[in-house]
Amino acid sequence: MVPACLDAMNAPCTAYSAPATTPDDLLARYGRPVPRYTSYPTAPHFGPQVDGGVYAQWLADLPMGARASLYLHVPFCAELCLYCGCTTTVARRPAPVAAYAARLREEITRVADRIPGRLAVSHLHWGGGTPTLLSGDDFQAVMALIRARFDVQSDAELAIEVDPRVLGPDMIAALTASGITRASLGVQDFDEAVQAAIGRHQSFEETKAAADALRAAGVSSLNLDLIYGLPHQTVASVLRTVRSALALEPDRIAVFGYAHVPWMKKHQALIPDHTLPDAAARLAQAQAIADVLEREGYVAIGLDHFARPDDAMAQRAAEGQLKRNFQGYTTDDAPVLLGFGASAIGMLPQGYVQNLPATPAWHAALEAGGLPVARGIALSAEDRLRRAVIERLMCEASVDLDAELQAHGFASGTFAPELERLQGLEQDGLVVRTGARLAIPHGVRAFTRVVAAVFDARLPAQESAAGPKRHAAAV
After folding, report:
1. What is the pLDDT at residue 426?
2. What number of CA atoms fall less than 13 Å from residue 18's CA on the CB side?
3. Which of 48, 141, 419, 431 is the most exposed place for a label (fewest CB within 10 A)?
4. Angle, to 10 degrees, between the axis of helix 279-295 and the axis of helix 235-246?
5. Whether the bond into 41 is cis, omega within 30 of 0
6. For residue range 406-443, what is the model confidence (pLDDT) as tens digits?
7. Cβ distance 66 to 336 under 8 Å?
């Protein structure tokens, strides 16, 4: 059942009484596909009007010494996991990975050449794919170039995604030498039947060995990534995985819902639909995981993250300063995000830009002397307003609409149509409205994206109702 009303700070409120609505009713009404809102506007709305020339001008217009974060994408894996939704391919030989690293250095140089001065870097994130497929020498060469072309701050968070199955002594030494401060270990699930179904075999012992080696090398901050909604998962099985994960004492745990989109990721079609938990089972798994983690002292962060109370992410969330970008929830508040590598997305004050997703095309664009941009979007004043509202809902499960309207210079009645559309969600207990303040009750946070979608002016009405084949299910 839907729990009694709780506001965004988990305190009882009086403006709401839970309706007689069951989780099954809510799932039937609101379980449609909606965006994940790692950006607004979302990536499907990017277009070719933002090309390499536009990006070059945006870079040139950045103010001297602006704060920035960097994202570096490595689109290679040792094998393809069937659940994967990332832009990646299988690399059987080291040569393509080495060639990619050389070209990555070329892109970094070309972008840096177009920026006035050296940007101050506060966050850096290596993602993939599997960044640890790079050789230690190639990894250090890229990091050395970054330090030469950017002003990497002494307290910068330097993070990398790690596949524990592909982490040798050479790479661990390179991470230490390069000053990496945080590693995110992919786990997904420890259940052998689930691992067989998704084509990813990874034991607890293998994962623990990677965690121990990273800590011994000085990479003391560790995250774990888990997934619910995978084939053959049950509440009992995901809880076994969570308890094993807790034994590794991570600082943060991300718990993502599996996005089954075989029309976009063809390899996912190898996962039979009948092996997947239905919406009600997915919701039960997510809630059971959250219950265990919160009982163990982790703070719930946004929609799908959990952190120890002394972790920077939990502290930022408590202060209302949590942010969200293409890497998910983050403490990164830099106004500039530069993306490097095939498919990488960047964010500048002017808008978003995405690189060519196919690695051969990305190589060719750089070889031709340009910037490897495929598409992007320039932000309007209204986009910035809606982005702020959606981000606060995604990060805090609450927002003061009047404060955001005032901050962005819009009239108080701007959101009248959205408030009208919210009435049904209010009646069903998905959101509480007190004047201009909206809050999503703690027990229905799984539907946060549904509330955020109300403020998405670029999501066509027919998509909202029927669900296009471009987004994952809301829960």
Report:
1. 95
2. 18
3. 48
4. 30
5. yes
6. 999 999 999 999 999 999 999 999 999 999 999 999 88
7. yes
Residue 134 has pLDDT above 90, yes or no: yes
50: left (phi over 0), alpha (psi -120 to 50) or beta: beta
Alpha carbons 124 and 180: distance in angstroms, whole number: 9
Question: 360 near 3, Cβ under 8 Å?
Answer: no
CB contact at 8 A, 21 and 1: no
Q: Residue 353 burial by CB count (10 A; 0-12/13-18/19+): exposed, middle or buried?
A: buried
Q: Is the dihedral angle over the CA atoms 123, 471, 321, 406 positive or is it negative?
A: positive
Compute how many other C-beta atoms are within 10 angstroms of the C-beta atom of residue 218. Answer: 12
Cα–Cα distance for residue pair 370/366, rounded to 1 Å: 5
Please tell me whether residue 329 adopts helix, strand or coil conformation.
Answer: strand
Provide the pLDDT for residue 13: 35
- β-strand partners of 375: 354
pLDDT above 80: residue 6 = no
C-alpha span between 422 and 149 (Å, rounded):
48
Of the candidates 182, 120, 178, 190, the residue with the CA atom closest to the CA atom of residue 149? 120
- Residue 300: name the closest of 276, 280, 317 by CA: 317
Average pLDDT over residues 280-301: 95
For the segment 336-359, the average pLDDT, to the nearest whole number, is 97
Cα separation of 198 and 80, whole Å? Answer: 9
CA–CA separation, 287 vs 342, rounded Å? Answer: 35
Strand order in the sheet with 398-400: 398-400, 437-439, 432-434
Contact, 286 vs 274, CB < 8 A?
no
Return the beta strands (E) in 261-316 as ranges: 299-301, 305-307
Between 27 and 242, where is the model more confident?
242
Count of CB atoms situated within 10 Å of the CB of 110: 18
What element of type H or E holds 84? none
Q: Which residue has the tokens 């979302």?
A: 42
> Could you tell me if 83 and 230 are in contact, meaning their C-beta atoms sit under 8 angstroms apart?
yes
